[in-house]
Amino acid sequence: MSSNRPLKIVWIYPDLLSTYGDQGNTIVLERRAALRGIPTETVNVRSDQPVPADGDIFLLGGGEDRPQILAAHRLRRDGGLAQAVGRGAVVFAVCAGYQLLGHEFGGEEGQPVQGLGLLDLRSGRGERRAVGEIVGDVSSELNVPRITGFENHQGVTQLGQNVKPFAKVLSGVGNGTGGFEGAYNGHVLGTYMHGPALVRNPGLADLLLRWAVGQELQPIDDSWAGRLREERLNAVLPA
Ligand code: GLN
């Protein structure tokens, strides 16, 4: 992030990758940045517009199979996201967005579709759709508390050598391989957690902000978010 301009948050393809309410993640980032006095600017980039390579945090959401294929095609052709990743920008991608960052994913008939190759992973179609609550323990180097989320996907994701699992699944399905959920490499992170993933996991929102500003953040009052987290954790894994 350059010091004399607001943190630029880029929501990629509201017309194709906004089926599951993941756009709310932008609001959480804006709010948590504002509480620390960090100004932000959010840009919505439709699939017929160029992706600004000067963004600081890029967000991609979930989508249905055909819009996901179209999004992958347009992002590959555009090249802006790959350029941004090349200079260390932060990417947070959910479900369809996560799958299309890999080398390939399964289309609506299970056919392999080429992804962006920004994460070393491949997705195919699983036997059964994974729908429901998910809980996991995050890779210790990320310093993020236990995650709680909601997943809804057919895809199964196999991680390659150059990517690390985001979390170990305690309940739910996640990647559907290796007992893991999500993946990351550098500042690019993908997850199957939909909808209010950053509302339910403020620690994850702060990880993205920390990566973007390159420094630790002041603590803020998280009692409301904490209550929601506790309620969801207890619903899935009663103490
Ligand atoms: N089409 C993908 C799948 O079913 C992604 C779905 C989603 O984003 N929820 O795995």
Automatic annotation (TrEMBL):
Binding site for substrate: R129
Quaternary data: Forms a heterodimer with MurT.
Function recorded in the entry: The lipid II isoglutaminyl synthase complex catalyzes the formation of alpha-D-isoglutamine in the cell wall lipid II stem peptide. The GatD subunit catalyzes the hydrolysis of glutamine to glutamate and ammonia. The resulting ammonia molecule is channeled to the active site of MurT.
Gene3D superfamilies named in the record: 3.40.50.880
Annotated protein name in UniProt: Lipid II isoglutaminyl synthase (glutamine-hydrolyzing) subunit GatD
Pathway of action: Cell wall biogenesis; peptidoglycan biosynthesis
Lineage: Bacteria, Bacillati, Actinomycetota, Actinomycetes, Streptosporangiales
Keywords: Cell shape, Cell wall biogenesis/degradation, Glutamine amidotransferase, Hydrolase, Ligase, Peptidoglycan synthesis
Keyword Plastid: no
